[in-house]
Specification:
- This protein is of the alpha/beta class.
- The protein has a single domain (about 5-145, about 160-190, about 235-245), classed as 3-Layer(aba) Sandwich (Rossmann fold).
- Helix content is about 35%, strand content about 20%.
- The protein contains 10 helices and 7 strands.
- Strands 3-2-1-4-5-7-6 form a 7-stranded mixed β-sheet, sandwiched between helices.
- α1 (about 5-15) packs across α4 and α5 packs across α8.
- The relative contact order is 0.16.
Length: about 250
């Protein structure tokens, strides 16, 4: 797995920069109810998306949280006073503190199903009744765009996707959340080229092909034989799911 403290300096440039951040933020905001006043962005990374979530006159007040110290430093430079370092499985916020919670490109990194469930449970806990939780699903599958690179990688050892859409829906249901919408957005600037994919493979991008393992170099060799080594293949398209926390039933006296 990538070391996100090491990745922080090159993270934005390697992942589509501002165009991808703008697409992600627009899609997240499009799933939020009118009048959303506060939003917690879990695993905010460098804050490049978080800043856009809080931009504009009617945008919610944003708070970002991330575990990687180097990511937190970059996010805090973008959003002074709005970033907290913490584990997404143990969020340092009160029950029902936020009108909305987002976790973009997080659940696929969970080490186990239990960790993924814990993340969703914490997001649900800090969400107010009537609020909405928005998260990406099926991230790895989004990168399969039917290219020659994908044809090479299809035979790599399978990875158990913690962010499988049906699985995430079951995590949400277990926390009392109900489906509230779905959206897709382009991963602008993330189309893979063979040379870039080899570099990603050698720095730990693919969980089932650890750097330095003989099998990783077998795949690197296959990728090196593809034509147009520096030509990006089509961009991925990511999927968001939204889940609402039902409002508490009102009580009336007779």
């Amino acid at each position: 797995m990538l070391d996100y403290d090491e990745e922080a300096e090159r993270y934005d440039a390697a992942r589509g920069g501002e165009p991808r951040a703008a697409a992600a933020a627009r899609a997240v905001l499009g799933l939020l109810p009118d009048g959303t006043a506060s939003l917690l962005d879990v695993a905010c990374g460098t804050g490049i998306v978080t800043r856009r979530l809080g931009a504009g006159r009617d945008a919610p007040r944003v708070t970002g949280v991330d575990l990687a110290a180097a990511m937190v430093r970059q996010a805090a430079a973008r959003l002074p006073g709005a970033i907290v370092r913490a584990d997404s499985r143990r969020l340092p916020f009160r029950d029902g503190e936020f009108d909305a919670v987002s976790s973009v490109w997080l659940l696929h990194l969970a080490p186990s199903d239990a960790d993924a469930r814990a993340i969703v449970a914490e997001c649900a806990r800090v969400l107010r009744p009537g609020g909405v939780y928005v998260t990406t699903v099926d991230k790895a599958a989004a990168h399969n765009v039917g290219s020659d690179i994908d044809a090479v990688l299809v035979s790599r050892p399978p990875h158990d996707a913690r962010d499988d859409e049906a699985r995430v829906a079951s995590y949400a249901l277990a926390c009392g959340l109900v489906p509230a919408g779905r959206a897709r957005f382009p991963g602008r600037g993330q189309g893979r080229s063979p040379r870039r994919t080899i570099a990603d493979l050698r720095r730990g991008w693919f969980l089932t092909l650890p750097p330095g393992e003989p099998l990783a170099e077998v795949f690197a060799g296959r990728l090196a034989r593809l034509p147009d080594q520096d030509r990006p293949r089509p961009d991925p398209e990511f999927t968001l799911r939204a889940f609402r926390k039902p409002a508490a039933p009102s009580s009336s006296g007779g």
